[in-house]
Design a protein that fits this description.
This protein is of the alpha+beta class. Helix content is about 35%, strand content about 10%. The chain contains 4 helices and 4 strands, in the order E-E-H-E-E-H-H-H. The strands form 2 sheets. It has a two-stranded antiparallel sheet. A two-stranded antiparallel ribbon has the order 3-4. A hairpin with a 4-residue loop joins strand 3 and strand 4.
Length: about 120
């Protein structure tokens, strides 16, 4: 089940389960390769095997090697001290550091879950 039902943006159907979601396979079909059938994804611990053999680096892991670790506390301190915090139209207006951190954590969990669900639809 999904965390909450939602209306699919393309067909306006109310979606309630992952199984009901359309498989996002446009690019997979456009760029199909015979080796695709031999790839298996394991969400925990986020690894792939090809013909049962491991040792491959996921795109997510590879991307992480190109960026420094995100320091949420340092970034939140900058946001809290920003002149924008006094503007009612600012995204973080009226929020405490803890509220911002909680929001980011929830957004991260949702994005991670969506990515894992995308892999499981193949």
């Amino acid at each position: 089940m999904l965390d909450a039902p939602y209306i699919h943006p393309l067909n306006n159907r109310i979606m309630t389960t992952v199984e009901e979601q359309p498989v996002p396979d446009y690019l997979a079909k456009l760029n199909e390769h015979e080796r695709d059938q031999h790839i298996q994804f394991y969400p925990i611990p986020h690894i792939y095997t090809v013909r049962g053999e491991g040792g491959y680096t996921s795109v997510t892991t590879w991307n992480h090697t190109h960026f420094s670790h995100f320091d949420a506390d340092a970034m939140i301190a900058k946001i809290i001290n920003s002149p924008n915090m006094s503007k009612p139209t600012y995204k973080y207006y009226g929020m405490t550091a803890e509220q911002i951190k909680t929001m980011w954590s929830q957004n991260g969990e949702q994005a991670s879950s969506a990515g894992t669900n995308l892999h499981s639809m193949s």
